[in-house]
Structure formats: C-alpha cells, structure tokens
Design brief:
With 247 residues, this protein is α/β, with parallel strands linked by helices. It folds into two domains: 99 residues, no CATH class; 108 residues, Nucleotidyltransferase, domain 5 (2-Layer Sandwich), CATH 3.30.420. It is built from nine helices and five strands, in the order ααααβββαβαβααα. Helix 2 crosses helix 8 and helix 4 packs across helix 8. The radius of gyration is 19 Å and the shape is globular. 35% of the residues are buried. One of its GO terms (biological process) is transposition. It holds the Pfam family DDE_Tnp_IS240. Keywords: DNA recombination, DNA-binding, Transposition. InterPro entries: DDE_dom, Integrase_cat-core, IS_Transposase, RNaseH-like_sf, RNaseH_sf, Transpos_IS6.
Length: 247
C-alpha cells in the first residue's frame, strides 16, 4: 500500500489556487484525495462500499466510515460556496419537493430551479408544512434575490409560504408582489430535474441521519449544477470545478 504522501500523484491536482475557503488542516490525506472521493460519491450512483473499493484500486486504503465523515464535513461547505459563485439565475421560478428516506422515514427535499432549468436552491426538511415551505423561500430568496413569479403545484403549504413572502413585501412597503401560479403542468421541468437527484440517492439506500443526508444532497446538487454549466469555469472538468469551490 502506498504512503499517504505518495498517493497525491494518483489524483487530479489541477485545483485553482485561490485563498483557502474550506480548511483541510489536520487532515491525514492530501486535499486532492479528499475532494476526489467526495466528488466521486456525489457525482455518480455508488455506495460507500463501492467507493471504498475504487479508492483502494488507486492505492488509498480507506474505510467507508472515513468517506462518510468527509462527505458530511466538506460537501455542505462546498455547496455554500457554490451559492455564492454560481452564475446569475432567472426570476421566474419552478418550485417543488421530492422525497428522501432518512433513518427509514420519508423526509422532504425542497428544490427550486428557474425556467431555464438552473438550480436556485434546495433544503431538506423532516416536515412538509407551512413552516418548512416558508423557511425554504426565505433561504432561496436570501441566496438568489426576489423572484417575479413562482410556479408550484397545488400544495397548500407552498401556497401559504409564498403568501407569507408577499406579506413581508407589503410590510416593507414594496409596491409589487410575487406572482404565484399553481399549475402542475408548468412544473414538469422541475419534476424532470428531480430525476438526477433520485438516480444518485437510490444506491445510497437510506441515510442514517438528517445531517448526513443534508450534506450528501447538498454535494449532489452542486455536482448537478456543474453539469448544467452554472459556474464560470464551465469549460473545465467537473472535478476541477468542484475542487475550485473548496479553494
């Protein structure tokens, strides 16, 4: 088995050299090895056991628990940076939620894209209710600005969540409101977009904790954004773009 120091040459090293954004201080393995493992897991439909075997083939002896810790620690932080660096998105939104199992129970992944299919935001919630929908819209607006229009299905909680956003606009003295369209067929684009997420989560089976699920799904969303060309380095490989978000 190769030493940790010698393993770095077996992994892509074309990481954009900018100010360190996410700390890798104290990590036993080189940054490029960690990022390669995390990216591979959130980009392709594999399990931790599969990834453990793949890393072993490249001379890196890891157990699946270490891989899980890396995803939990770094994927969410990279997703936060992705929100700051993604190219501008449109102001006509499509919003919906899909289902993910955590500890054997269904949880709700709230997602929004613009009419061109660019990812706007995402949030995992244990509940599907007014509070969760409102929290999602607060998060999405905080990261993307106010939309002109939001298309949803006939979900009552999502409708009330948008009503709460419009109430906030009125309270702040704005003279316009978000247009809300409750039309299921117009939301086909986001329902199709869910498929990429479901394809990757299927071999993962059920998540063991909400934190693990949130971090993993955040990483998957970033990989999906890279596929869509939502970053300025879209001519570079997916791994290079992912690694650049870590600094």
């Amino acid at each position: 088995m190769l030493s940790v120091a010698s393993q770095v040459r077996y992994f892509p090293t074309a990481i954009i050299r900018i100010e360190e954004l996410i700390s890798f201080k104290g990590a036993q393995y080189p940054k490029s090895v960690i990022l390669y493992a995390v990216y591979f897991y959130v980009r392709f439909p594999i399990s931790y056991r599969d990834l453990e075997e793949i890393m072993a083939e490249r001379g890196v002896d890891l157990d699946h628990a270490t891989l899980n810790r890396w995803v939990e620690k770094y994927a969410g932080a990279i997703a936060e940076e992705a929100h700051r660096r993604k190219t501008p998105t449109g102001r006509s939104w499509r919003m919906d939620e899909t289902y993910v199992k955590v500890k054997g129970e269904w949880t709700y992944l709230y997602r929004a894209i613009d009419k061109e299919g660019k990812t706007l935001d995402f949030m995992l919630s244990e509940r599907r209710d007014e509070a969760a929908a409102t929290a999602f819209f607060v998060k999405a607006i905080g990261n993307n600005g106010w939309p002109d229009k939001v298309v949803i299905d006939k979900s009552g909680s999502n409708t009330v969540g948008l009503f709460n956003m419009n109430c906030l606009l009125v309270m702040c003295g704005w003279c316009w409101l978000i247009t809300v369209r409750r039309t299921k067929y117009l939301n086909n684009i986001i329902e199709q977009d869910h498929r990429f997420i479901k394809k990757l989560t299927r071999p993962m089976q059920t998540f063991k904790s909400l934190n693990s699920a949130s971090a993993t799904l955040a990483g998957i969303e970033v990989a999906h954004m890279i596929r869509k060309g939502q970053f300025d380095q879209s001519e570079q490989s997916g791994f290079v773009q992912f690694a650049a978000l870590a600094g």
